[in-house]
Amino acid sequence: MTLEELYDVLFGNYNPIQKVLVILAAIVFIALLMKDPVKGREAAQSSLKTFGSILLLIVAGVALGSVVQAVVPKEVIARTLGRESGLLGILLATALGAVMPGGPYILLPVLASLYAAGADLSLIITCIIAWSSIGLGSLAPLELAFFSPRIVAVRILVGVPLPIIAGYLTKIVLSLVS
Question: Is residue 65 part of a domain?
Fold first, then answer.
């Protein structure tokens, strides 16, 4: 294998920011190993443990995203979440983000597949903001372990308008930069 082929295998699909992150992580890790091999091994073990715990989630998210893209016709996605879907599309994206379970390993591959199938970027942003600000599928259940239902309800109610506003702001920004 030539160096060029190795580079393509390692970095072929990465954008420049991702490449810098991977290279920076490798440099920092190697520097730690050289400076303090014991801490370097601890960092490696911790990294592998974390990677192992999220690997299945990443696979599940990518699989779910692929299934969505394969099963839901592009015309349906374009009609319900496309550029011309208007307020209904923003409300659907808000609802999808609000109830989406799991972490970013599930959400992002699903949204990437919807985007590839014709969902409008403003609705992808809406969904991400809804997932992070409303979070009925992931955040609210955890919050209830620490806070009263009243506090959780107030947080959710405050979070509801945020994705809708973000969706419209994204449409405005996209029209300005196009």
Answer: no
d(CA 60, CA 170): 29
Written as six digits, the tokens of 153 are 């309800």
Determine, yes or no, domain membership for 136.
yes
Question: Which residue has tokens 């620490």?
Answer: 146
Residue 55 has what DSSP assignment?
H
Rounded Cα–Cα distance for residues 103 and 57 (Å): 8
Q: Would you give the end-to-end CA distance of the chain in angstroms?
A: 42
Question: Which pLDDT score, from 0 to 100, does residue 38 have?
Answer: 94
What pLDDT does 144 receive? Answer: 85
Query: Considering the domain boundaries, does residue 20 fall inside one?
Result: no
- pLDDT, averaged in runs of 10, over the chain (178 residues): 75 79 90 93 90 81 80 84 91 92 83 90 96 84 87 93 96 92
- CA-to-CA separations, 73 to 80, 82, 109, 124, 174, in angstroms, rounded: 11, 13, 17, 17, 25
Are the C-beta atoms of 95 and 144 separated by less than 8 Å?
no
Cβ pair 134, 156 in contact under 8 A: yes
Domain count of the fold of the chain: 1
pLDDT at residue 7, rounded to an integer: 74
